[in-house]
């Protein structure tokens, strides 16, 4: 009987979700501001990727760098990015999406300052690694956060903005770098870091992450803030044990999944 009651409760919750899809998909100012805050990190990523192209000759002349030293400086972004991406999922699950974005901003801020104030190759390389590590966190957490807060019918377009802003950042650094010095260009890269770091204090945490760690009250507040849902009964159904059970039964994927027989083709395509 308890099983039948649980199924009826879950069915009722799903029915309410379907009936109120239009309300769920409402676009609020907080939602748009949260997406804007997230894609500030995308701009940081684009600026970092596009930085080296316009500053190569001036930086080599000012600091007396060899071609090999400058090439190492440029490539260290990917090294830092690799290290950051390896721990990005763990960090985002442990401290939350907002705090992960803030941590990324702090690392990128330090990296940009190290580059802007650099007097030699070692400080350039250190700043580039820190910048890359921060980007490794950013490229993971930004689309995850956007995907978790955006309504279903807006999710694809919202995540697409992440890619577009990265491309915009690359182009911006290339054209601006043609008319200013490489130190000033590095300081310009700090601007989106500061913007996102400041704005994260005014956006809600991902409701899905709050559900995952069992903070149901905070989940209700975040969902209300993002979507403007006023029906408390719907929120009660969303936070009921039967509805949240799938999240709590979810098992984190591991690297072993890449070696399953049915995943061989996907793994080869990823490597390509």
TrEMBL record:
Q: Which SUPFAM superfamilies match?
A: MFS general substrate transporter
What subcellular compartments does it reside in?
Membrane
Q: Which UniProt keywords apply?
A: Membrane, Sugar transport, Transmembrane, Transmembrane helix, Transport
Q: Which residues cross the membrane?
A: 30-51, 71-89, 101-122, 128-147, 159-178, 184-203
Q: Which InterPro entries match?
A: MFS_dom, MFS_sugar_transport-like, MFS_trans_sf, MFS_Trehalose_Transporter, Sugar_transporter_CS
Region described as Disordered: spans on this chain: 1-20
Q: How does it sit in the membrane?
A: Multi-pass membrane protein
User: Do you know which PROSITE patterns this protein is assigned to?
Assistant: MFS, SUGAR_TRANSPORT_1, SUGAR_TRANSPORT_2
- Output the Pfam families linked to this UniProt entry: Sugar_tr
Q: Which GO terms describe its molecular function?
A: transmembrane transporter activity
Q: Where is the Major facilitator superfamily (MFS) profile domain?
A: 34-272
Per the record, its GO cellular-component terms are: membrane
- Principal cellular location given in the protein's record: membrane
User: Belongs to which family?
Assistant: Belongs to the major facilitator superfamily. Sugar transporter (TC 2.A.1.1) family.
Q: Which PANTHER family match?
A: PTHR48021, SUGAR TRANSPORTER ERD6-LIKE 5
Under what name is this protein listed? Major facilitator superfamily (MFS) profile domain-containing protein
Species, as recorded: Nepenthes gracilis (Slender pitcher plant)
């Amino acid at each position: 009987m308890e099983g039948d009651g649980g199924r009826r409760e879950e069915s009722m919750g799903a029915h309410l979700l379907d009936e109120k899809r239009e309300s769920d998909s409402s676009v609020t100012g907080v939602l748009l501001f949260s997406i804007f805050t997230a894609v500030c990190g995308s701009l940081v990523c684009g600026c970092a990727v596009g930085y080296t192209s316009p500053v190569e000759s001036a930086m080599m002349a000012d600091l007396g760098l060899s071609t090999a030293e400058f090439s190492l400086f440029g490539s260290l972004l990917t090294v830092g990015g690799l290290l950051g991406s390896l721990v990005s999922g763990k960090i985002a699950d442990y401290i939350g999406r907002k705090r992960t974005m803030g941590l990324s901003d702090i690392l990128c801020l330090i990296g940009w300052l190290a580059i802007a104030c650099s007097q030699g190759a070692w400080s350039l390389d250190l700043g580039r690694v820190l910048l890359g590590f921060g980007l490794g966190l950013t490229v993971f957490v930004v689309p995850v956060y956007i995907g978790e807060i955006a309504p279903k019918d807006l999710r694809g377009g919202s995540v697409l903005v992440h890619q577009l802003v990265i491309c915009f950042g690359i182009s911006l650094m290339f054209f601006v770098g043609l008319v200013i010095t490489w130190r000033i260009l590095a300081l310009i890269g700090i601007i989106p870091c500061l913007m996102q770091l400041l704005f994260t204090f005014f956006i809600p945490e991902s409701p899905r992450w709050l559900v995952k760690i069992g903070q149901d009250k905070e989940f209700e507040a975040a969902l209300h803030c993002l979507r403007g849902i006023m029906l408390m009964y719907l929120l009660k159904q969303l936070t009921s044990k039967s509805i949240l059970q799938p999240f709590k039964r979810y098992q984190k994927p591991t690297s072993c999944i890449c070696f399953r027989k049915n995943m061989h083709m996907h793994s080869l395509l990823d490597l390509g």
